[in-house]
Please model this.
Amino acid sequence: MDPLQSATDIVRSGTDLTVSQTSDLIGLMLEGKASDEAIGSLLLGLREKGESVSELVGAALAMRQHMTPIPHQCAVLLDTCGTGGSGSGTFNISTATAIVVAAAGIPVAKHGNRKATSKTGSADVLAELGVAIESSADAVAQTLERVGLCFCFAPKLHPAMKHVGQVRRQLGVPTLFNLLGPLCNPAGATHQLLGTGRGADQQKIASALAQLQTTRSLVVRGEDGQDEVTLASGTVVLDVQQNAIQELHWTPEAFGLESVSTADLQAADPSESAVIIRDLLAGKPGACRDTVIANTAAALWLVGKTNDLASGSVLAAEAIDSGAAKDKLAQLVG
Model:
């Protein structure tokens, strides 16, 4: 029997696949050795059962084996890629955060793609800002070394994903692959500020990261449904260090910032998101700036640059007000 069909029967019985089983199966998909029908059946079976941590880990290991790596010499390297799909309609907060974190002196390899379920993806807004998003692996590595910030465009650096792209589009629903982007940074980021809008996914992703041996990562979820650190409500945080996961709860006050309304963070499309990012990098005050400051503060605390979130907010504001963040974007554009 076809191995994917056998696996589909297993998951439809309610049984989770092991790490090695999933890794082998995803490997067959990425090598073009599985039919679209078999891929679709297995992905839907996993979705109906609910993807397990072992399945996430196995799939991530297979994707990492098939991606194009970005070499670097960074002892600390951050990614701010999240799962997306929160439906909050906000501007590209994690992308703006990546720029400000890099301006504060922490190297960042931002992994991302064009929009799927959101109004604007990280690749969409960076292209709108003038960044060459489809650079080769060598060019991305050179940019990281020169600027301390680079963009890892998923379709370019995960070429094997072409074998499952059509099936995913035909299915039209989130699958296992929607959770894998943040687990498969081509530059092998040591630290991650990873947002997700769903509580069930948050716990799974944190557990998977622990097994995948992250140095330290924060999996964040806004209680208002945002897949970012939010100032519109509280933020639930899972702090992952090796095999230990600690749950934290952050409020706007922890950052030394005022609460904001999600309505003030909206962007209708990549063009509007780009305008918001340019404005906040130029020093425009308001909810968008404060939200990026909070996310940057979380990242700076994560990598040990600061001892508390409020100090991180101060550093983030300095990176913007000094012009360093605006300059960092200009360097990335080249």
